[in-house]
From TrEMBL:
Domain of life: Bacteria
SUPFAM superfamilies: NAD(P)-binding Rossmann-fold domains
GO BP: nucleotide-sugar metabolic process
Lineage, broadest ranks: Bacteria, Pseudomonadati, Bacteroidota, Cytophagia, Cytophagales
NCBIfam families on file: dTDP_gluc_dehyt
Catalyzed chemical reaction(s): dTDP-alpha-D-glucose = dTDP-4-dehydro-6-deoxy-alpha-D-glucose + H2O
Gene3D superfamilies reported for this sequence: NAD(P)-binding Rossmann-like Domain, UDP-galactose 4-epimerase, domain 1
Species of origin: Cyclobacterium xiamenense
Swiss-Prot/TrEMBL cofactor(s): NAD(+)
Record protein name field: dTDP-glucose 4,6-dehydratase
Stored Pfam families: GDP_Man_Dehyd
Stated family: Belongs to the NAD(P)-dependent epimerase/dehydratase family. dTDP-glucose dehydratase subfamily.
Amino acid sequence: MKKSILITGGAGFIGSHVVRLFVNRYPDYRIINLDCLTYAGNLENLSDIEGKTNYVFSKVDINDSTQLEQVFNDFQVTDVIHLAAESHVDRSITDPLSFVKTNVVGTVNLLNAAKNYWKDLSQHLFYHVSTDEVYGSLDNGGFFTESTPYDPQSPYSASKAASDHFVRAYANTYGLRTVLSNCSNNYGPNQFPEKLIPLCIHNIKEEKPLPVYGKGENVRDWLYVEDHARAIDLLFHQGETGNTYNIGGFNEWKNIDIVRLVCEIMDQKLGRTAGESAKLITFVKDRAGHDLRYAIDAKKINEELGWKPLQTFETGIEKTIHWYLDNEAWLQRVTSGDYLKYYQEHYG
Ligand code: NAD
Ligand code: TYD
């Protein structure tokens, strides 16, 4: 094996796309998917690559330093791509501590495991996957660049910002080789239906209300998940040590416009009368501390490494809706049990 790469959070939404890309594209790398399978982790996301000889799954919590050490030893880990995290802003508002535990303490545990196991730190890479939310909230002008000062506003973004700082501190203090990326909102297959787009797809199917926070005027910059996975692949191989790269689609949408678009496509796909699904739109109480706008300037990764998204929003959203309609059983399974409890508590 040329490399033995530990990908954390590989059973989650973005992680599963990253794991699949690496397993299929690099048969001479061993890919270890390390995930403790929280509500957001689902091995079903990777059923197509389960039998591959260069793929192994390890059910471990990044907060368990003994087991982490064991995994580094057992699989002679050469590099890390770290995606495991608590990822949902609304959950961070009701339970900030679990975000501190996984996103901050868990990341430091992983950094320690890597630093202690690797003899020559210059020979290995710790790639940390983060979010544009660490930069705070924009008003209607400007973009986040790699030099925008950190100004996290939610418990989620505060915990991710802290984890980014720890990764940079390990590079500075111990000489760990790191690359970081901060990406905008992802959408696509396998996203847990607590996030806006899959939540709307699911609720339209079930003819349930589509909860739009506040007036729906908040803006997000959306990127198709496979384009994010391709960017991670590129940065893992060609990113400059110690550097940070912003990843985004130059694709800003107001929430209400996204919800209306999803309604329109769903009406066509489900053979409903035009305008039928939009009747489900329900304006609800705004999210506490709701960031107004995120927008990424992705010039650096484009100009230095030639990355750009392959999907337009039109093709990406079409593929996404198609996937959810084709994978009804997946959606059924993830929206039973604990999901119903969360939904009831959050939306009443
Ligand atoms: P997700 O919630 O879908 O998946 C997270 C995964 O991490 C799950 O498989 C879960 O089981 C695992 N996990 C959670 N806690 C763990 C722990 N203590 N130990 C081991 N595994 C654990 O998240 P996602 O949307 O796929 O996000 C992945 C990463 O990308 C996160 O670091 C997130 O901050 C970042 N990110 C997400 C977005 C987005 O739009 N979703 C955008 C930019 C960056
Ligand atoms: P989300 O998918 O939770 O991602 P993030 O908070 O990380 O950007 O939310 C995207 C946007 O949609 C955000 O502005 C909040 C809004 N939103 C709603 O209006 N209603 C909902 O039910 C959810 C989950 C989100």
